[in-house]
Specification:
By secondary structure, this protein is mostly helical. The chain has 14 helices and no strands. The radius of gyration is 31 Å and the shape is flat.
Length: 323
């Protein structure tokens, strides 16, 4: 026989529920992943702004002075440095060749790298070896490549190419680096040769992410290999083209080591670049004109920013249209 002991809680009304604890809205916002990511990036952004804004602001100030690089006393000269740049042949020639180099390398590398990436995406014997060989020219510095190609393209009979064509065809030495036009073309050729392999690997990475179903559907519909290339491959590579063209334009506008080691900026000012002009005016020239170098740097920065903004806008529109 069991005895049931009545509980003191029988028949008692349940305890009223207390207020439920909820985190403060600011605490919930801080715990979100996006806010934490921004907070972690804040020191990096601040350091980048300081390291960018201070040099730009200092150059902007010095561009309106007659600072020589040594004297502590400077005088405000207004736009005299900017006006002086317009009358210098080296500056105008360097700007023209810089733009020519940037545009030519961007166009030629893009035209060559995309078909090359399509070929490298196929299966054949020694494919990995070919990929590594094409990527190798991007590893050494452009200064070293310029010195090597300066021997290959030497405009004398003992130059590698001149010696070869002299033995094969009996042709006299070609002035590869001593003729204005040939020197410009030689610098552009070496620039294309050093970058086309790297950018073909970039396109290859994007190419391998394209679903094979697109090509199977095109083949079922009777599309030829050229039609599949222009209507499937090229539109799908639009994001890669945006990245590649931006990298090519920025590296082309900032080119310095390659023409300096290959031609020393010659003959005359034929292969001078804007960066070489800035260094010659502000650091390495016979008479230091730091104010003019700062003025040229400010103008060059404005030009690069403008070109990049226009390029990004046009490439994004093209990318949206192709997709």
């Amino acid at each position: 026989m069991s005895l049931s002991v009545p509980s003191i809680y029988e028949g008692a009304s349940p305890l009223p529920a207390g207020p439920r604890w909820r985190p403060h809205p600011r605490a919930r916002a801080f715990r979100s992943e996006g806010v934490r990511t921004r907070l972690f990036l804040l020191p990096v952004v601040l350091i980048a702004l300081v390291l960018f804004l201070y040099p730009v602001g200092r150059d902007l100030y010095l561009s309106f002075t007659n600072f020589s690089g040594y004297s502590a006393k400077t005088n405000f000269v207004g736009f005299a440095n900017y006006r002086a740049l317009l009358s210098q042949t080296a500056v105008s020639t360097g700007l023209a060749f810089t733009v020519m180099y940037a545009v030519a390398t961007t166009v030629v590398v893009t035209v060559l790298a995309i078909p090359l990436a399509v070929v490298l995406n196929r299966r054949f014997v020694g494919r990995n070896l070919v990929r590594a060989a094409l990527f190798f020219p991007a590893i050494p510095s452009l200064a070293i490549l310029g010195l090597v190609w300066a021997y290959i393209l030497a405009p004398i009979s003992s130059g590698a190419i001149n010696s070869l064509i002299g033995h094969l065809f009996g042709v006299g030495p070609v002035p590869w680096l001593s003729n204005d036009l040939l020197a410009r073309l030689s610098v552009i050729f070496v620039g294309v040769w050093s970058q086309v392999g790297w950018h073909s690997i970039l396109y290859l990475a994007y190419l391998q992410s394209i679903p094979a179903d697109y090509y199977d559907a095109g083949q079922v519909d009777g599309a030829s290999s050229w039609q599949r290339f222009f209507y499937i491959t090229v539109p799908q590579l639009a994001p890669a083209m945006t990245v590649s063209c931006i990298l090519l334009i920025t590296s082309g506008l900032n080119v310095y080591a390659l023409p300096l080691s290959l031609t020393l900026g010659g003959p005359g000012y034929a292969t001078y670049t804007v960066t070489q002009n800035i260094i010659q005016l502000g650091v390495n020239g016979d008479s230091i004109q730091y104010g003019q170098a700062s003025a040229l740097a400010v103008l060059f920065l404005l030009m690069v920013v403008t070109v990049l903004l226009v390029q990004v806008f046009l490439m994004r529109r093209r990318e949206a249209r192709l997709r």
